[in-house]
Design goal:
The protein is mostly helical. It has 3 domains: 53 residues, CD2-Gal4 (Irregular); 284 residues, no CATH class; 105 residues, no CATH class. The protein is 52% helix and 2% strand. Strands 1-3 form a two-stranded antiparallel sheet. Strands 2-4 form a two-stranded antiparallel sheet. The relative contact order is 0.11.
Length: 629
């Protein structure tokens, strides 16, 4: 057994790799094109030794976990005889369940959501034009009030002490949204009917016959060094703050971003600054960050939460739910109201990023629906909110909500939750190409900001045409086609060529998804329309050209749902199914993407049984049958 090298280079030691100690540069660093340095230190003996590497963030985080659990065990011993039911001690208010029974109509919300208007036919000329649409609304509902509990129940760490064996809310989904019609897909048959066609009972899709993506060592996953940017102790830290807990939170977020964010390097520094700032605010905020980090850590280890993890997620959900319930949008909200709404929206967005992999699609849709009035209250007092200004200038929580609203709309067939003012022209797209860093939303999920606006613009055209009982003006469709041909989206830049290629493929796949949405959702074409078939083939060609793997497949899954509606060949359907189910988080029956795949199976089965091509309306019907919404 060889001993660990004591005279290796700094880079190898930092990565916990055995150094070959070649001078002046070791072979490993030479192959990677990295700087190589031997930093010798003085020792009490004559033996040479290089400076040891700092302890890895994971080791510090593990110590923080032990520290937290030691505290929890001590508190549990003290409180065991006084707390019979832990979950009711967590919050100042009793939890409001995420269910239809918790929602009620309120006429006072009507002025908030703008009604559909007739489409305006705009003249086109050689001069630059800007076209605008107001996206269609979905009437939101207000949450009912709940009784208050005592202030002593507000400790979030106490929630960790009292996690019991109660059922997770995810087990209490209404019977009309449970899933049972299709068996798990296999390489031979991916959708087989096991009940009547009209049944709305489904069985979750599993991946028994589909190989999982290999796991890599932590330092190999973090090719871009996200952990090194985020996991560092602040230069100035309040002495009253536990640095171990902070390092635990920073390490959890860095790991989560490496797995769930399209280009985490763009936002690593901002994330570090945001976490350290929030950690210094108050004990309540720190406790929430610790709980969020604990849920993230459990999901990183296993995408299917155990009983304790479900209790933690339920606790987090209930606490955040109190901050969004009862919101009523005001025409001119005060600065204090906007500040309160901004804080509440921050928490919703944080929960949403976990929801998409740990909860059914119905929960995500309801969470977004309930957060819509909070979003409108957090916007500057211009209604309807200007989507271009939000994507270019607004805070991250507003940008994220817009992206989530658009993404859920185009993958469920549902209208947008809010009405936006959406100016559109090719010239406006240049505004996005001039921005760098963490502006916009492209770095989050790989969907370019220009295409977010275009999807929303087309959604408004579609909804207005449906309301008026007419078709969208063909000249508008031709102009969108021309804009798509001339649209320039900057390529991704990065140290790792494979990541850059994967991100470029995701970006181009979204282009093809735009064409499918244009022809099927806006023009009313079916899956056998030559224009739709061309875009579908283009998408599949791009997807097959790149090796399957976590990156880019986790970010290809969303446009695959759009393309799946237009997919008729069995081999292409199997490719989509296998690529999505190769990701372990999507095999979880409680994951939103697993539900989305069920929707595709429903569309494929119904259209085959009825011997017809799929239409865009089938997606909305599939969403209703799978989620009950």
């Amino acid at each position: 057994m060889s001993l660990r090298s004591t005279t290796g280079c700094c880079k190898c030691k930092a990565k916990r790799k055995k150094c070959d100690e070649t001078k002046p540069k070791c072979i490993r660093c030479t192959k990677r094109g990295e700087e190589c340095e031997y930093d010798y230190i003085e020792t009490s003996t004559n033996r040479k030794r290089t400076r040891p590497a700092p302890r890895p963030a994971s080791e510090i985080a593990n110590k923080a976990i032990e520290h937290i659990y030691d505290f929890i065990r001590a508190e549990e011993y003290v409180n065991a005889s006084t707390t019979p039911n832990g979950l009711t001690r967590i919050f100042d208010h009793s939890p409001v369940p995420l269910s239809d029974s918790a929602l009620s109509s309120d006429a006072s919300w009507e002025p908030t959501f703008y009604q559909s208007t007739l489409p305006i036919t705009l003249p086109f000329s050689n001069a630059p034009t800007t076209r605008a649409t107001n996206s269609s609304p979905l009437v939101c509902q207000q949450l009912v009030e709940s009784k208050q509990l005592t202030q002593s129940q507000a400790s979030l760490l106490d929630a960790l002490l009292s996690l019991g064996d109660t059922n997770s809310p995810e087990q209490n989904i209404p019977s009309n949204s449970t899933l049972t019609i299709y068996s798990a897909p296999t390489p031979v048959s991916y959708c087989s009917l096991s009940g009547p066609l009209g049944s709305n009972s489904y069985r979750p899709i599993a991946s028994a016959h589909i190989p999982r993506i290999d796991k890599h060592e932590e330092d190999e996953r973090d090719i871009e060094g996200i952990g090194q940017i985020i996991c560092r102790t602040p230069a100035r830290l309040d002495p009253m703050i536990d640095s171990n807990s902070l390092m635990f939170v920073l390490h959890s977020y860095s790991q989560w971003m490496s797995l769930a964010v399209f280009d985490p390097l763009k936002a690593a520094t901002k994330t570090y600054e945001d976490i350290t700032s929030r950690f210094s605010e108050c004990p309540t905020t720190r406790r929430r960050l610790v709980l969020v980090s604990e849920v993230m850590r459990k999901l990183i280890k296993s995408w299917s939460l155990d009983a304790t993890g479900k209790e933690m997620l339920s606790s987090l959900r209930d606490q955040i739910w109190q901050n969004v319930r009862g919101y009523r949008v005001q025409q001119l909200p005060s600065s204090e109201e906007r500040k309160r709404a901004t804080i509440a929206l921050d928490q919703v967005i944080e929960l949403l990023s976990i929801h998409v992999v740990a909860s059914p699609l119905a929960y995500t849709l309801r969470l977004l629906q309930s957060a819509a009035p909070v979003f409108l209250s957090a916007c500057i007092p211009t209604h309807p909110p200007n989507m271009l200004e939000i994507l270019l200038e607004a805070e991250l929580n507003l940008r994220y909500f817009v992206a989530a609203d658009v993404a859920t709309s185009i993958t469920t067939g549902r209208p947008l939750l809010c009405r936006y003012y959406i100016p559109w022209s090719l010239e406006l797209c240049n505004e996005f190409t001039q921005r760098r860093g963490a502006q916009g939303t492209r770095w989050m999920v790989g969907l370019p900001d220009q295409l977010i606006m275009l999807f929303a613009y087309m959604n408004g055209l579609r909804e207005d045409a449906i309301a008026a009982g007419t078709r969208v003006d063909p000249k508008i469709v031709e102009q969108i086609e021309e804009d798509m041909k001339n649209m320039v989206i900057p390529p991704w830049e990065g140290k790792d060529p494979s990541l850059a290629i994967g991100r470029l493929v995701v970006q181009e796949c979204w282009r093809e998804a735009v064409f499918i949405y244009l022809y099927m959702a806006v023009c009313g074409a079916d899956a056998l329309d030559p224009r739709v078939e061309k875009a579908q083939r283009g998408f599949m060609k791009l997807a097959k050209a790149i090796k399957p793997g976590r990156n880019p497949d986790v970010f290809l899954a969303t446009p695959m749902i759009i393309v799946g509606v237009a997919t008729t060949k069995s081999s292409h359907r199997q490719t989509i199914t296998s690529r999505i189910l190769s990701l372990p988080e999507f095999t979880n029956p409680n994951a939103a993407m697993n539900n989305s795949l069920l929707m595709l199976n429903d569309i494929w089965a119904r259209t085959e049984a009825e011997v017809r091509a799929a239409q865009w309306e089938d997606l909305r019907e599939a969403c209703r049958r799978v989620t009950g919404i």
